[in-house]
Design a protein that fits this description.
The complex is a heterodimer. Chain A is an alpha/beta fold. In chain A, 28% of the residues lie in helices and 8% in strands. Classes of the chains: A alpha/beta, B alpha+beta.
Chain lengths: 423, 566
């Protein structure tokens, strides 16, 4: 039994190094990663998850060592002398600074004196080493290479129109023939910033030893974990029901479907509305924010201007308005019926002190209810029919029966009561 | 200690380059520091802060539809992962002449405060704290460790650690309980944030005119219950850092020299009064002064001004020692209300990157050198408290009182009874006091978050027009300008933008570390962190010559080089 790192001893433990590199990054992916809880960085660093090796994280934001002490492990890994397997994680897009040799960098870490001798002469001892150099030196020996965030996966904002760094995603930089030592192309966990748990779960799954023998992880044709990026975010969106009923937000802050104020959710692959941003809290549309496609290769240029309705919403929005208007009204009729306990139908009044609720007894609703029940109980028994013969409970309205003085009860203040608006 | 402004001759040869701090870890972004600790004389001398990343955000923003401003500029930094989005929203408010409703202002305040609730523990226990942990202290100073083992922690009643050694053990990453608690609490703060911000970093509900957030009572209650957990936690953190700081200063008074710097502090204020903020530049002095923390500049320990507009016109950026070309003259001799502007003011600046070799005697950083009235300025939570304390002009709130020499925080009860916690302006500015102030800033942010969520709950129940979250706006067709004066966990942020024909013509970002982590300016004056490193004596025995005191000095600034250079 082995995980993708092949780093396990017989009991499924062991040590795997993670080398983190920042290119055209904002550190937001690192911040997301530190926020993750399934698993958390402390879980992985302390090896507290069965079947998952201990992670030694070499990360410029987290490591205790600084300077050449910190770079030593990077150098050993590139020289092939680390002695333990490693994962390469790249955050941020890769700038096109290879051609600037000797004349600067767009992203750099460590000095020329840290450069692995097995990889050529590199740069002058006192000059910074480009992130893009570390990437080509470390990627071939990595058991798996993960691009975290939309910049590293596809290019993201540093690769947007007008950039002067000619940045690109990691797969563009390494080329489509790249394979890690375990035979995997770059694994892509997109998002700007990504959900931290999406990354940590992917990392954990890549390193976990399967109890059932050889486990196969599925990725889509762009290397995204299929179990996370298999669906459009709209399908699980809490506001998708509004879309179905043809009701749309007119301005930010409105509760309805956000498509017309610039939400691209129906055509974006993302799981944030079901997973939440952190610990199942938040999520863009959950909180009222429109999806701007930040997990997608086309982000940002193909999803902007932001806060402008996507062109596709013109047709689909009109269609859902038309059908939604009918569906919505039919649903309200069913809802109104279901919003009453059968006892209230029998008694002809609603046991609510809130003052506004009335029993449903008008002729239209009776006709509706008749046909509705015909359909509901077709092919089965109408158990609810027996409600009609059910005697009213004798102790109903007990306070009045006991003679407790209720005349003193004051009417409920109207500001506590809000009528249910018909949508 | 004298501060040389140019590297000495001995430092010019490549062989002399020290490799100890390239990169500096446990800061944000890519930073190398060129400095050579001399363990013979136990001094450091010159230092150069080399920011080694540039992404071109300002160049990408120019030429885009102005509606892209907030979501693109947010991505400049993911560590103060909402501060830039909000600064950009404020700049757009000003450019478009839109006043967000009170609910939007208090929810923005809430987002900024909960961001601090994640950011302050992250710095105290993830960046600065490990340098005082058992693992590091045992290795670098066995005598200090022995002393810590024998020193009772006087505030044990608050934090539960009987000795200073127990505190140090708790600071050890992952295995230490204080480190793990900080991770857990920073996640709770983020939960509160995303309830209204959607995600973190890079919130999805920010917009000019207010917020695109569906604020309901359930969200506010979930947020309320998370924020109130920070009352007890904040008092534990304050007690822990008070005990640790007092111990270090008693163990060796020279620790007061580690990271010592002139008291030059800048902050633009944070958290707007929902009934004062109108987004306009005409009233900026008024609404700026009404903020929960007061804008201001302190030079040599003396408060210079608390006027937001005077603060703005004093800002300049220099690229003499940075990888950019000069941009010639700008188009604004005065700001929109008639104050004269320098050629180096962000409204006049253009971003013309020019990569090159690192040359500490010439150009060496991707960060520009941001200055105020010519002075290198520190910014950060210590500046925020310091300015509010000296100004003593902040409007009365139920929980914060400023006295002229201190900030009193009236902390509501949690499991601990309600009580007053007072941060007093220290005699001097150094690494330990920066860290200590940050601990108090955590409680400060907690009561601000609490007060704002309480106002939001009341507004939500009022159902009036003040409870709206958004004011519709139009982006003007003509040439307009706007600025967002705001801040993140690590200090002041400005966004200056110009819009022409609804398209961004120029966009300029200054992050906290463009001030704190700046390189030398045109006059050769080092940036604040460079000065602090040069002033740092090597107090700790440090047999392995890690340069631990230098690292403590650097990390006390909580630098973020992606904020510094975009």
């Amino acid at each position: 039994m082995a995980n993708v790192a092949g780093a396990t001893t017989s009991n499924g433990s062991g040590t795997v190094h993670v080398f983190w590199l920042s290119g055209m990054s904002c550190d937001g992916c690192s911040i997301s990663m530190i926020g993750a809880t399934t698993p958390s960085i402390e879980d992985l660093s302390l090896a507290s998850i069965p079947g998952v090796p201990r992670l030694v994280m070499h990360h410029p934001m987290l490591s205790d060592d600084a300077g050449s002490d910190f770079m030593q492990a990077y150098r050993d890994a590139a020289d092939g002398t680390l002695g333990q397997p490693y994962v390469l994680v790249v955050e941020g897009s890769v700038p096109d600074d290879q051609a600037m040799d000797g004349a600067g960098h767009f992203a750099a870490m460590g000095l020329g004196s840290d450069w692995p001798r097995s990889r050529g002469s590199g740069v002058a001892a006192e000059q910074p080493v480009k992130t893009s150099d570390w990437i080509w030196a470390l990627a071939p020996g990595a058991v798996v290479t993960i691009a975290i965030g939309t910049c590293a996966t596809w290019g993201g904002i540093p690769a947007a129109a007008g950039n002067v760094t000619r940045s690109m995603g990691l797969s563009d930089y390494l080329g489509k023939d790249y394979r890690s030592t375990r035979g995997l192309p770059v694994v892509n966990v997109p998002g700007c910033a990504p959900i931290g748990d999406n990354f940590m779960e992917t990392l954990k799954e890549l390193l976990r030893v399967g109890d059932a023998g050889k486990t196969v992880l599925e990725f889509d044709d762009l290397g995204r974990p299929m179990w996370m990026f298999g669906e459009t975010v709209h399908r699980h969106c809490p506001k998708a029901g509004y879309y179905e009923e043809g009701v749309f937000a007119e301005e930010p802050g409105d509760n309805q479907c956000l498509v017309e104020i610039g939400c691209w959710g129906p055509v974006v692959l993302c799981n944030i509305v079901e997973r939440g941003a952190i610990n199942h809290m938040g999520g863009c549309m959950v909180a009222g924010g429109a999806c701007i496609g930040c997990t997608m290769p086309g982000f940002p240029d193909k999803y902007s201007p932001f806060y402008k309705a996507p062109p596709g919403s013109f047709i689909s929005g009109h269609a859902s308005r038309t059908t939604g208007a009918v569906i919505r009204r039919l649903r309200r009729i069913s809802m109104a019926n279901g919003n009453r306990e059968p006892l209230w139908d029998n008694a002809g009044d609603v046991a609510s002190g809130w003052g506004l609720a009335a029993a449903i007894s008008n002729p239209t609703s009776k006709v509706n209810s008749f046909f509705y029940k015909k359909l509901q109980y077709r092919g089965t028994v109408n158990h609810a029919k027996r409600n009609k013969y059910q005697p009213l409970p004798k102790s109903r309205d007990i306070l009045r029966q006991k003679g407790v003085d209720l005349e003193a009860s004051t009417p409920v203040l109207q500001e506590h009561v809000r009528t249910r608006e018909e949508l | 200690m004298s501060i040389q402004t140019e590297p000495s001759a001995a430092r010019t040869s490549a062989a002399a380059t020290d490799t100890r701090f390239s990169p500096v870890t446990r800061v944000s972004g890519l930073l190398a520091v060129d400095a050579t600790p001399d363990f013979g004389s136990r001094t450091v001398g010159d230092a150069a802060l080399v920011t080694t990343a540039f992404r071109g955000y300002e160049n990408i923003l120019a030429g885009r539809d102005a509606r892209d401003a907030v979501f693109v500029s947010s991505r400049a930094c993911g560590v103060c992962g909402s501060a830039h989005a909000l600064a950009s929203s404020l700049a757009m408010d000003m450019a478009c002449g839109v006043q967000p409703p009170p609910m939007a202002v208090v929810v923005r305040n809430f987002l900024a405060a909960t961001e601090c609730l994640y950011d302050h523990p992250t710095h105290l226990f993830g960046r600065a704290g490990p340098d005082f942990s058992e693992a590091i202290v045992r290795e670098t100073s066995p005598e200090l460790w022995k002393r810590a083992e024998g020193t009772r922690a006087p505030r044990v009643g608050y934090h539960g650690y009987a000795t200073v050694a127990e505190i140090m053990a708790a600071l050890t990453p992952y295995s230490g309980i204080a480190h793990r608690t900080a991770l857990a609490m920073s996640r709770i703060a983020r939960e509160a944030f995303v309830l209204l911000g959607g995600k973190y970093p890079h919130p999805q509900t920010t917009t000019p005119g207010g917020l695109s957030a569906t604020v309901d009572t359930q969200d506010l209650n979930l947020a309320y219950l998370r924020v109130t957990r920070f009352f007890d936690y904040g008092r534990q953190v304050v007690a822990l850092w008070d005990d640790l700081t007092d111990f270090m200063l008693e163990a060796d008074p020279r620790y007061a020299e580690v990271g010592a710097a002139p008291i030059n502090l800048l902050d633009l204020g944070l958290w707007d009064d929902p009934y004062a903020y109108d987004g306009s530049i005409e009233n900026a002095s008024m609404w700026g002064g009404q903020r929960w923390s007061t804008p201001g500049a302190i030079v040599d320990g003396k408060l210079q001004t608390t006027d937001l507009l005077q603060l703005d016109v004093g800002i300049e950026e220099f690229v003499d020692r940075s990888f950019y070309d000069e941009w010639g003259s700008g188009m604004f001799a005065i700001d929109p209300v008639g104050n004269p502007l320098s050629e180096r003011h962000p409204y006049n600046k253009r971003t013309i990157p020019q990569p090159g070799r690192v040359d500490t005697q010439g150009r060496y950083s991707w960060s520009t050198a941001a200055r105020w009235n010519g002075h290198p300025m520190e910014t950060g939570p210590h500046a925020r408290l310091w300015i509010s304390a000296l100004a003593a002009s902040q409007p009365h709130t139920r929980f914060i009182e400023t006295t002229g020499s201190s900030v009193r925080l009236h902390v509501p009860s949690g499991n601990m009874p309600a009580g007053t916690v007072e941060w007093r302006v220290p005699d001097r500015l150094n690494a330990l006091e920066r860290n200590r102030a940050r601990a108090y800033a955590l409680l400060h942010a907690a009561v601000v978050a609490y007060e704002n969520v309480v106002i939001a709950l009341d507004l939500a129940r009022s159902r009036g027009s003040d409870a709206r979250i958004f004011t519709p706006y139009e982006i003007p067709r003509d040439h307009v300008v706007g600025a967002g004066y705001w801040g993140g966990g690590r200090g002041a942020i400005t966004h200056h933008l110009q819009i022409d024909g609804r398209v961004i013509d120029n966009y300029q970002i200054i992050g906290p570390s463009t001030f704190s982590g700046s390189p030398r300016d045109g006059a050769g004056t080092p940036g604040p962190c460079e000065t602090a490193i040069a002033a740092t004596p090597l107090v700790t025995a440090d047999p392995g010559e890690r340069g631990i005191d230098v690292l403590r000095a650097i990390r006390s600034f909580d630098l973020c080089m992606f904020c510094a250079s975009h």
